[in-house]
Amino acid sequence: MTDTSISQSDLISLLGIARQWLQTPAGEMLLVAERAALEKAMARCFGQHMVTYGLATEPLTDNHQALRNHWRIDLQADGKALPVDEACWPFAPQSLDAVLLHHGLDFCLSPRSVLREASQTVRAGGHLLIFGFNPWSLWGMNHLAGRDWFSEAGFVSPARLVDWLELLGFAVEKRQGGCYRPPLASARWLQRLAWLERAGARYHLPGAGFYFIQARRQMFGMTPRQEHAPVFPALTLPPLVAGSRKAHKRNQ
């Protein structure tokens, strides 16, 4: 299997296509399931500052009562998001209480660079909340078969992601999956296959279309020092830079 490259402009185009797909029956099914997972996870997040990066352009949950400030960052400015370079976030180290990567590792030039940037901004005791497409699922078959935008998305293995998180000093507190139905275009067929969701959730079956990981930055037995530095270390945001990534099958 040969590798293909994708430029930053192609990545932005791919992201736009995937965001339009979110308005389809399968896309709406995905968002409903992910909102339910995130609602429960937010009950364990406390502090003042939260950042979202990735696929969704609208908040997945309104449960931000415990977090005073919530920003969304993106590869492009759209009036609601701050434009950033994925490998250079404009936040001070350990200044955020929670970071949500909504398929941010699936749509990027380098998933490890994005994860490193996100992890560096989370304070000790803070959380990383990560949604990703599961390569070992019916959704992953579209990725391997080269169908539509699925072929270019990252589909980072959850097992590999857990290894990365441990190396970065995070402990996984929760891991779950959802969307056992394939991403069909027909709302009628999705309704007919609703029993797959019930069976998958009841018996904790493998093969969910997406996974959700909640990880806490470990404090190693020490009380974290109160961070007095500003969240934004500078008034000017870093410009976008040209780049490319290998759109290889990351689990081969």
Give an overview of the whole structure:
The chain is α/β, with parallel strands linked by helices and 252 residues long. Helix content is 31%, strand content 22%. The chain has helices at 8-21, 25-42, 111-121, 138-145, 158-167, 187-192, 194-203, and strands spanning 5-7, 49-54, 69-74, 82-83, 96-102, 122-133, 170-178, 210-217, 244-246. InterPro entries: Methyltransf_11, SAM-dependent_MTases_sf.
Annotated CATH homologous superfamily: Vaccinia Virus protein VP39
Round the mean pLDDT to the nearest integer and report it: 86
Q: Could you state the oligomeric state of the chains shown?
A: single chain
| Order of SSEs | EHHEEEEHEHHEHHEE
GO biological process, one term: methylation
Keywords: Methyltransferase, Transferase
Domain Methyltransferase type: 89-130
Organism: Halopseudomonas salegens
